[in-house]
Amino acid sequence: MSKNFDVVVIGGGPGGYIAAIRAAQLGFNTACIDEWKNEKGGPAPGGTCTNVGCIPSKALLQSSEHYEHASHGFAEHGIEVKGLGLNLEKMLGRKNTVVKQNNDGILYLFKKNKVAFFHGRGSFVKGDANGYEIKVAGAAEETITAKHVIVATGSNARALPGAEFDEKLILSNTGALSISEVPKKLGVIGAGVIGLEMGSVWRRLGAEVTVLEALPTFLGSVDEQIAKEAHKLLTKQGLAVNLGVKIGAIKTGKNSVSVEYTDAKGEAHTGEFDKLIISIGRTPNTIGLNAEGVGLKLDERGFIAVDGDCKTNLPNVWAVGDVVRGPMLAHKAEEEGVAVAERIAGQHGHVNFNTIPWVIYTSPEIAWVGKTEQQLKADGVQYKAGTFPFLANGRARALGDTSGMVKFLADAKTDEILGVHIVGPMASELISEAVVAMEFRASSEDIARICHAHPSLSEATKEAALAVDKRALNF
């Protein structure tokens, strides 16, 4: 006998599980279907983010940063470390524990909010405006029905043609998080978020890392001044970043990978690596959804086609997160999930794409919100800019991390904040103040007039706002 629900969410990643919880809070009889499995075959909700993305990568970034501090940074603090060793198995074990804690936390939240959870792959069978039949293919196949369906099936790592992932030598983000021995030489194709974060982890642990990027500029979507500063700092640490590269043949041996490529000058090279991480973007995951069976429309790039409210072409079918247009960010997916649940309830769910923050968790961190300086120039917008270096920040000096800066961009006439860009310590936390300010359409003067605690890294934000009017106090 089929189980009937008001709302069924297919996918238990950040967009999906949050949508399910919010729908349940709003009084809907809600179910969530997710097929991720842990090492014992049990449910592991949380999607790519929790299992092989945001959460485990941050765990390894933190662990590897501790290791680098112990091996290089503690001495200047008067802390002498002798006989330093690396227990990689334990480090990876800690990462796995952090992941499981998040998996279990989501299952707890489902129980707390009375969300029915189905462990398996969800796919459409049939349906119309009166309701949809959804098959759950798990340990035991069953069918459930729903008035509304929210598709939140996420994305998959994009492979290079002729270099498919085996997760042993040629790695996606999944394999990059579980290398059992620090490679002597690690190749990374793609200098995006995943490539830089994973490259940073293994460089800190002792690998010689070579990054190969096809684009001629480093982090082209980041503000140019911030990107140049980040490039300088990351290469100084030891990341070898090659831009304007054209990848040729990739060949695997018994224990190595060779990559033929030409550099920006047109000169041919062959890189020999113990492991190769390919991080050239992600593709929407509609595999097994049976979209064609019910006439669910996909766009020319394979994303589920939605309007501004995340409605698909089918009545009462919605889609959120990586499987639809917009930035592939966990927090974007969460906001869309909440908004859709509220729209189903007749409320006015809201997602402002102009104030979605971006973060790259390298060290130093890179974070930004709003427009870059090059975008404002291209759009013909008159603006003022203000920057402040962490070198002149007391808390940064005390931390021993004075790299980077905060940069404000404000409208030349109204002083409204148009963008804030940070490279430096704890940029991921500092950017939140800028997001709030921009959501309330604040001016740089508003931030400049707010009292910030001393000593704190956030004072650099205030000083950069002051610098928009050329009146920074500590630089």
UniProtKB/TrEMBL annotation:
Reaction equation(s) it catalyzes: N(6)-[(R)-dihydrolipoyl]-L-lysyl-[protein] + NAD(+) = N(6)-[(R)-lipoyl]-L-lysyl-[protein] + NADH + H(+)
Residues making up the signal peptide according to the UniProt record: none
Enzyme Commission (EC) number: 1.8.1.4
Domain FAD/NAD(P)-binding: 5-337
Protein keywords: Cytoplasm, FAD, Flavoprotein, NAD, Nucleotide-binding, Oxidoreductase, Redox-active center
Cofactor note: Binds 1 FAD per subunit.
Subcellular location(s) of the protein: Cytoplasm
SUPFAM superfamilies (alphabetical): FAD/NAD(P)-binding domain, FAD/NAD-linked reductases, dimerisation (C-terminal) domain
Gene Ontology BP term (one): 2-oxoglutarate metabolic process
InterPro entries: Class-I_Pyr_Nuc-Dis_Oxidored, FAD/NAD-bd_sf, FAD/NAD-binding_dom, FAD/NAD-linked_Rdtase_dimer_sf, Lipoamide_DH, Pyr_nuc-diS_OxRdtase, Pyr_nucl-diS_OxRdtase_dimer
UniProt cross-references to Pfam families, sorted A to Z: Pyr_redox_2 (PF07992), Pyr_redox_dim (PF02852)
Binding sites annotated in the UniProt record for NAD(+): 190-197, 213, 281
Family: Belongs to the class-I pyridine nucleotide-disulfide oxidoreductase family.
The name this protein goes by in its record: Dihydrolipoyl dehydrogenase
Organism: Herbaspirillum aquaticum
Lineage of source species: Bacteria, Pseudomonadati, Pseudomonadota, Betaproteobacteria, Burkholderiales
Gene behind the chain: lpdA
